[in-house]
Design goal:
Radius of gyration: 20 Å
Shape: globular
CATH superfamily of one domain: Electron Transport, Fmn-binding Protein, Chain A
Mean pLDDT: 95
Strand content: 25-35%
Order of helices and strands: HHEEEEHEEHHHEEE
Number of helices: 6
Number of strands: 9
CATH topology of one domain: Pnp Oxidase, Chain A
Helix content: 25-40%
Structural class: alpha+beta
Distance between the termini: 32 Å
CATH class of one domain: Mainly Beta
Length: 215
């Protein structure tokens, strides 16, 4: 086991960039688009990976990593099993938070808001764009349920593969979610732990209020 004192001594000086009010976009989605594309161009590992946090009816939070599959003025989209733990939690409490952490760029983006399902048409279109193995996998995995072993998944995949061949339909329990943001935070690491942190909050007028937070 790692010595806890060595963990406490880990340090990094953040010096790559800065984030100012004058250089940031007044629309947080446009600022996000700018940073995401910079992460993609920089070839950071998994730039599309985001942590999704939900809260169950017993008020216990849970997190998992999902992949962003689309974004526009309406919000951030990902796809998953509606019967998974996150699906059940979102059905009971449709508010969630997302976080992107691009370590190499010393940047974090946090997003909060209400979650809704995307249209069946959008879910169908994305499902049929996936590789065949992934489409079969959506049928084969009873996500978040207890199974006796990996052999269950292998057997399910073989069974559904034989049943659907090259044309598996989208399962009714599988589709997209969209988080509709009402708050964003953009964090840029800086020296001496005096980081840049800008928050955008959606106002009743539909405009975004941008403000600096102490790190």
């Amino acid at each position: 086991m790692t010595n806890t004192s060595s963990i406490a001594d880990l340090r990094k000086s953040y010096e790559r960039a800065e984030l100012s009010e004058s250089d940031s976009h007044p629309d947080p989605m446009q600022q996000f688009d700018r940073w995401l594309n910079e992460a993609i161009r920089s070839e950071v590992p998994e730039p599309n990976a985001m942590t999704l946090a939900t809260v169950a009816s017993n008020l216990r939070p849970s997190t998992r990593v999902v992949l962003i599959k689309g974004y526009d003025a309406r919000g951030i989209v990902w796809y998953t099993n509606y019967l998974s733990r996150k699906g059940h939690e979102l059905a009971g409490n449709p508010f969630a938070a997302l976080q992107f952490h691009w370590v190499e760029l010393e940047r974090v983006v946090r997003i909060e808001g209400r979650v809704e399902k995307v249209s069946d048409e959008d879910s169908d279109a994305y499902f049929h764009s996936r590789p065949l193995d992934s489409r079969i996998g959506a049928w084969a995995s009873p996500q978040s349920e207890v199974i006796s072993g990996r052999s269950v998944l292998v057997a399910n995949a073989a069974r559904y593969g034989a049943q659907f061949l090259l044309q598996p339909p989208r399962p009714a329990h599988w589709g997209g979610y969209r988080l509709v943001p009402d708050e964003w935070q953009f964090w840029q690491g800086r020296r001496s732990r005096l980081h840049d942190r800008l928050r955008y909050r959606l106002q009743d007028s539909g405009q975004w209020q941008r403000e600096r937070l102490a790190p």
